[in-house]
Design goal:
By secondary structure, the chain is mainly α. It has 25 helices and 8 strands.
């Protein structure tokens, strides 16, 4: 669905009635005449609905998504020394969440007020409520459309609440638009108990699902609009989040109370929440399949000179994400990902000569590159056939790896004998790069990730680690003097992600079992790996790991981090699992990228030490909001 300029104009007239930047649900000026015109006919009403979508579409900008900027998957190195003084307020400030720079005076990713790469979600919620209150007014709206549009507004309202409660924990529930003549006490809403918030989101999603179409029939006109399948997938994610350790009987929040002394977090973990989540995951998968969802099959585009089976597999794995609107993408946001130039190395001489075409600033830490398995499908530190201790020694590209590592090129041993998802997701010095104008993988002059020792990086537009999130760059993008970016919409939920979510819930309910293995193995099979049991029994130093609940939990968590790497999911997963503190306790390391010799380049250096404490699992409410609304309580530990 394309959001038109005029939509924002029509919706903007109502924004004065929405919660201001500084106050939640503040009293606002009279806008009755404006709303009357907004619902004067079907076209104006639909335009208002599309305005409700506006902030949802803005979430496709990964810089706004803490699941990306605070995941430990990617860091942004430029002007780090200035971030403390700048407060991380720029477009890249969200990356400072990993540097311990979050604060309650001027919070990063402030979605409560809409500052510092946050969005004004309370305004969006109020718009949804206004729409639902007024959609009965235009007489020319067909009954089917009235139901569908109302269901879309309900979904959006539910999702915006979910985004806020995932960030802040207990929040107020804004189920109606507060009248402009409301009393001060009515405006000053209180936070509700956490489970009440989750239950409200699920209830609202259920109300929306019954009146949403299962799939979009006219993609040219409606791509991006919400379907029942999307709503069911979001419901599965919501319930899994509610069942997860961060929110399900977390002892860290046991003493957190509201203004009236009531406990806002559940006191004890409820195992039944995992069963409820499992049922929702299965329902979402069944609905997705019924609507035509299936694993991605490569849709070759452009003039291909030569493509080996190995390259085809890599493009298939990557294409599941970057090939827009393919059947594996259960939910895709329409605006295009605009940061390919941040995500790729300079793989051609033309790109290297024009640093403004390719910035390369999105840097993948060594620790993130090492979560990917060996070719045998087990972690690199578990594979008894893989030289984990010697992984930083130098090795030369050979015939066996020529579709992954440039032949006769010196790189490190850790880049050899890795699983296909490593090569489809991460670029490194010496990595082959199919695309960027070169579509012949039998070309002995394969271009490689040239920001290594042979090509001095620009001091302001450089990659700080020597690893890039290759997955985010379409192979048909060609930067240089005549740059052509092959843009793509941002997928929020993929079928493989739902499979792993379901496997996670099954394991939490019943422990290791054949059904849980089967859903994990579906993901692994597409990645060219043996099943879980086969891989661990044959190659792991810990062959019994999949047979225990804790062991299988670790496997599933790592599998999700690999399969969904760089997709804006890991940061949220690591939070709900209460594992982000562990990930961000390790220094962000990379190669010495400004050194001009092979030996010098391949010396590990620390880019910086991330900082993430217990309080950072939830986001602070801006202190000004606590003053203007004394019924609110600050997020725990802030």
């Amino acid at each position: 669905m394309k959001i038109l300029i005029r939509i924002l104009f029509l919706a903007g007239c109502a924004l004065a009635a929405l919660p201001g930047c500084k106050q939640y649900l503040d009293v606002t000026p009279d806008n009755v005449a404006t709303l009357s015109s907004s619902f004067s006919n079907a076209n104006e009403a639909q335009a208002y609905l599309f305005g409700c979508y506006s902030n949802l579409q803005s979430l496709s900008d990964v810089r706004r998504n803490a699941g990306f900027t605070a995941s430990g998957e990617v860091l942004f190195p430029i002007n780090m020394q200035d971030q403390t003084t700048l407060g991380g307020q720029g477009g890249d400030g969200g990356f400072s969440l990993m540097r311990g720079l979050q604060n309650s005076l001027n919070p990063l990713h402030n979605y409560w007020d809409g500052y510092n790469m946050g969005l004004k979600l309370w305004e969006s919620i109020r718009m949804c409520n206004i729409f639902l209150d007024n959609i009965h007014l235009p007489l020319d709206v067909q009954p089917f459309d009235r139901k569908r549009w109302s269901a879309e507004a309900k979904f959006l309202k539910a999702y915006y609440h979910y985004w806020l409660l995932r960030m802040y924990g207990p929040i107020p529930i804004a189920d109606r638009a507060i009248p402009i003549n409301a009393s001060s006490e009515e405006v000053r809403q209180k936070q509700q108990k956490l489970d009440s918030c989750f239950n409200y989101v699920v209830k609202t999603l259920d109300e929306a699902i019954v009146d949403l179409p299962p799939a979009i029939q006219n993609a040219a006109a409606e791509a991006g609009r919400i379907t029942a399948t999307i709503a069911l997938a979001v419901k599965a994610e919501v319930l899994t989040t509610q069942a997860s350790p961060l929110f399900n009987g977390n002892p860290d929040y046991a003493s957190f109370k509201g203004k009236e002394g009531q406990s806002l977090f559940p006191a004890a973990a409820d195992p039944a929440k995992w069963q409820r989540a499992a049922d929702a995951c299965k329902a979402a998968i069944d609905a997705a399949v019924a609507a035509g969802a299936k694993p991605y099959e490569l849709r070759v585009q452009g003039n291909i000179v030569s493509m080996s089976d190995q390259t085809r597999q890599l493009l298939t794995l990557q294409g599941a994400f970057v090939d827009g609107w393919n059947p594996e993408q259960v939910w895709t946001l329409n605006p295009h990902y605009g940061w390919q130039y941040m995500s790729m190395p300079r793989v051609t001489a033309e790109a290297a000569a024009n640093v403004f075409a390719v910035y390369s600033n999105f840097s993948v830490p060594v620790s993130q590159s090492e979560i990917f398995y060996t070719k045998n499908g087990v972690p690199i530190n578990e594979d008894k056939t893989w030289d984990y201790i010697g992984r930083y020694q130098l090795q030369t590209g050979d015939e066996a790896h020529r579709y992954y590592v440039k032949q006769d090129y010196t790189t490190v041993k850790g880049n050899f004998s890795r699983e296909p998802r490593y090569y489809s997701s991460v670029a490194f010095d010496g990595a082959t790069w199919f695309g960027s104008g070169n579509t012949n993988d039998n070309n002995p002059n394969f271009v490689n990730a040239v920001n290594g020792y042979a090509s001095p990086p620009d001091r302001t537009r450089y990659n700080a680690t020597g690893y890039w999130p290759k997955k985010l760059v379409h192979y048909q993008s060609v930067p240089g003097q005549n740059t052509v970016w092959h843009t793509y919409p941002w997928p929020f939920i993929r079928l493989s992600g739902l499979w792993l979510l379901y496997a996670e819930c099954l394991n939490e309910v019943n422990g290791p079992n054949a059904e849980a293995y089967s859903w994990i193995d579906k993901v692994r099979q597409r990645a060219g790996l043996p099943g879980v049991l086969a891989s661990w029994s044959q190659y792991s130093r810990n062959p019994a790991k999949p047979s225990t609940k804790e062991g299988l939990r670790q496997i599933i968590h790592q599998e999700r981090r690999i399969e969904l790497a760089f997709e804006g999911q890991a940061g949220w997963d690591l939070r709900r699992w209460k594992e982000l503190q562990v990930v961000l306790s390790t220094p962000f390391q990379g190669w010495s990228v400004f050194n001009r010799t092979v030996a010098g380049y391949y010396q590990l250096s620390t880019v910086y030490q991330p900082s993430f404490g217990l309080r950072d699992y939830l986001f602070p409410i801006q202190e000004y909001d606590l003053i203007t609304n004394p019924n609110l309580v600050q997020t725990p530990y802030w």
